[in-house]
Amino acid sequence: MLLNIFRINVRNVLKMSSIERIKQNADLAKQTIQELKNELNFLNKEYNNILARELREENARLLAAVEEAKAHLVKLEVKNGIPQIPVPNQTSRPVTTTAVGSSEPPKEEPPKAQKEPKPKKDKKPKEASLEPPVDIGRLDLRIAKVEDVQKHPDADSLYVLKINCGEDKPRTVCSGLVKHVPIEELRDRTVMLLCNLKPVKMRGITSEAMVMCASSDQGVEVLTPPSGCTPGEPVHCEGYTRQPDPVMNPKKKIFETVAPDLLTDATLRACYKGVPLTVPHKGAIVAKSLANVPVK
């Protein structure tokens, strides 16, 4: 019995000592591997340093060889009379040469005279634009005669008129007078026409002017020029110079600025700021019955 126990203990001791030896060997192997890694890193660094030093030395030798070759080339060119051109930003002074066999020293070229800067011309100030004031004088108001009236084919509220305003051919005018003025009252009628609005298309037909009317909630009346007027006669307003634009620029809103001051007065005369619109030596432009209402 005691012999068996002794044998078991011996086997256990042997097993434990074997495990300990394995562990020790594993630790030793790890340590050895780490030392080998460190040694390899050191060798790599040393190799790189040696390689870099050799490359620097080789570059220095090559640069020296290049400079020697350049110097030799320059000597050969000088010997054969080839002039040397200075290189920009070159620190050393360029070599100047003379022709082969010449005993005279090279002549220095005189410095080129610098051109004096030309005096700047004074810019002339731009002349201020002489645009006339925005008033009734900018509107091209003329006497005109309606030669033909038709209903607009695509707009129930519009007439299409052919109006003679003293030009080579009559102008086409679209006017929204259908609900206010019977067609018979417009035929062969003399009117006051605003002729320098920008032409616009109204339901497919280009309108080239505007028939001036007295307008209010009570109704709309076409203004009537004095008797004896002929198509093309200009309409004036005393105190304002008549200098109409060929075509009023919509962006400048000339008509929109003037329109609030266009009104009929208590005696039915069409006025601008209280001054009647007239045909010189013939009379004023008047409404039929609408007093103190806008003209448009």
TrEMBL record:
Its main location: cytoplasm. Residues 105-129 have a biased composition (Basic and acidic residues). Residues 135-236 form the TRNA-binding domain. This is Aminoacyl tRNA synthase complex-interacting multifunctional protein 1-like Protein. Keywords: Coiled coil, Cytoplasm, Protein biosynthesis, RNA-binding, tRNA-binding. GO terms for molecular function: tRNA binding. InterPro entries: NA-bd_OB-fold, tRNA-bd_dom, Tyrosine-tRNA_ligase_regulator. Residues 83-134 are annotated as: Disordered. It comes from Tribolium castaneum (Red flour beetle). It holds the Pfam family tRNA_bind.
